[in-house]
Every structure is written in structure tokens, then in C-alpha cells.
Amino acid sequence: MGIVIGVVGPHDLVDEVAATCEEQLGVSALRLDYDHESQAPAIVEAHAASVEGWLFTGIVPYMLARDADVLSRPASFVDYSGATLLSALVRLQHEGQDVTRLSIDTLASADIVTTFAEAGLPTEDIRTLPYRQGMSSKKAVAFHRRGGGHAVVTCLSSVHEALRGEMHVLRLVPSVHSVRVALRQLLQSAEGQAQEDAQIALGLIEVESEEGLLREATALGGTLAAFRGGTHLLVTTRGPLSDATGGFSSLPMLSRLASHNQVVRVGFGLGRSAAEAESLARRALARARRIGEVAAVLSLRADTDIVLESVTAAPAGGKNLNVIARRVGLSVPTLERLIEARAAVGDEPLTTREIAERLGVQQRTARRMLHRLELSGLAERTGNLSSGSSGRPLTMYRLTL
């Protein structure tokens, strides 16, 4: 079974980086390009459910996505220091530029010093602007313009476009070697995440009535079967269980089952094999029995038991947004802004344009978000509203987050 990597970067780099990724057996690349690096977080949000990992063509779009808290999958970026920077220095020398007097953005100062030392070049007259949170292309352009006669080395296509008409500027392009190194790191992280999520989770459930039990099993992505002594067996994997329990902290199904059962005891076991998971589930159920009539316990290896709290149905603003975010492929901050938008209008529907304005995104991005929420039962279409122009009508949605 292959793995899909989302490659995010400017138009002229995405195809080349994606092609290098697809040299790896079993890897396919989803090409996602942008006009400006600031668009990276919205791209990641819109396509989160389509990939198993993210590879950014540079550190800037990666950091923008990370700082926006939209990375719900393993992610890596292509490093432009080392071989990429060395090849740029050779090219600049061929173009007749003084490579001891440069203005370089984005790369860490220590990496630049190391690369120059390996090439036997001095660094006393090298100006550097390392990437920091909040750094923008405008700030980078201003930094380079203050460099006097220094040639410019930039990692940003937007900076290259702004400066190429007024000074000598070279944009770094990732080497094939750098792409392969970043891809190896990403595949290791994605494989580790996949193996962890695929761990077997077995639940032994004691209830008086089976009402609602099948629905709870389905919500966990699992199957339900009768077990010995009237106990029910729920089979799922670590990933869905972690999502549903908010990272193994609470078990909302406990309170739902308790609404029509006096006794609800659940023991989950998480193991690398079915036999290990069943043994741990038995231990968890035994501890749940000692706790009381309504209790849930998760048993892990190394004699670790976690008592899962019973959580009553939360109000709209108190839902476990981490679980919802992973399910619909949106970030928690985006869901919080949507909840605020719904609270502001009460039960009234909102148009796609109004949602886009409240989130600060383009309408097509808002439409994709609302479509995901609709598929998950968290938004419903209520009709269309003329946009007042010759454009497409505005779809109206009632948010049910």
C-alpha cells in the first residue's frame, strides 16, 4: 500500500520536488502549489484528509503552516543549506560575483558559516537574515536593499520577484540530494505514525442493554461481537481510539451508555498483537470493576493503566475540538473561529462569503471547509442566495458545531 505525500511550494518547484519523491517506490505526490508562501496554511487545511505526510519545498511555508497549527500529519521541509548553498556559490562565482560579500535570507547563520568554512571562504562580510517567526517577504526585501553592493541569495520566490530588476539576486533551488534527505526523514515519521495508529485496540464492555452499543463501536471505526459471559468485544485500532478519547483522557461513550444502563464497565487494551491487546483489556476491565458501576480503563504495556473520565455531552463550544479537527481535516483555531461565527448569528445561516470574510480566506477555501463539515454532519445547506452579480450564487449554511 502506497503513501501519498503532499508537496507544497511555489509553482516552479513543486513539480521537480514531487518528481524526485515519486522516484521512491510506493510514494505518490499530491502537487499543491501557491502564488505566495502565505497561502501555505490554507492549502494544508484544505487537503489534510488527502495525504499521509507533508513535504514543503522550503522552511518558510513549513513554519507558516506549523505556526498556524494546521499540521495534523507528519511534515518535513527541504533544507537549503549544505549542498544547495554550495552549488549556489559555485554558480555565483561563474557569474562573476564576489561570494565573500553576500546578503542571505532564511538560512540559519550557523549553517551558513559551516557551509562557507567547508568551502574555505571567509564570512566577515556575509549579511544574514535567519528565519524567525513573523518574518515576511517584505522584511526580507527591506533587509537586502540595505545591503549596498552585496549580491542577494534568497530562499523565497516572492523576494526574488521583487528584487531581480534592481540588483543581482539568486534564488536557491533545492538539490535532488536535499529533497531525498527530507523525504527519507518524512517517510520515517509517517511510517512510525502509521504503525502506532495501527496498533490493535480491544475493548471488553459490560452493559445491561445493547442499545446504542453498535453505534458507539461504529464511531470508533470498530466492529462489535459477543464475548464470554455476556461481555461484548469491541475491536478497533489505536488511531480512532486516541481521537475519540482526546488522546486517552476521556471516554464520552461512557456517559452515553450510562444514560440507559446502571452498569457500564469498559476495559480497553492496546497491544502489538490481538493476544496482547486481549490480555491487557482483561486487566483493564478488572480494574474498572473495582472502581465502580460506571467506569472505563485503558491498559497499556509496562503495567500502565489509565482511568478514562466519563464526560457528559458537552455544549457546542465545549466539544473536543482536537477530535473534530482530525476528523474533518481543519485546525482547532479554524474550528474555534467557526464556533464564534455561529454564536454571533445564533441559529441563522451564513453564506460562503460571510464565512470566508470571518476566517480571512478566499471563498473557494471556505466552500471546501464547509463541504467537509457538511459531510461530517457539522453543517447543513439551507439554500442559495444571489450574489448580486453575474457570479455563482452564494450557498447558505447553518453551522451545527
Structure, briefly:
This protein has 16 helices and 17 strands.
Descriptive account of the structure:
The chain is 42% helix and 23% strand. The chain is α/β, with parallel strands linked by helices and 401 residues long. The protein folds into four domains: 3-78 and 177-195, Dehydroquinase, class II (Rossmann fold, 3-Layer(aba) Sandwich), CATH 3.40.50; 83-172, PrpR receptor domain-like (Rossmann fold, 3-Layer(aba) Sandwich), CATH 3.40.50.10660; 199-310, Alpha-Beta Plaits, CATH 3.30.70; 321-399, Arc Repressor Mutant, subunit A, CATH 1.10.10. Helix 6 (137-145) crosses helix 7. InterPro entries: WH-like_DNA-bd_sf, WH_DNA-bd_sf.
Secondary structure tally, helices: 16
- Give the uncertain stretches in residue-range form: 311-318
User: How big is the Rg?
Assistant: 26 Å
Largest sheet: 6 strands, mixed
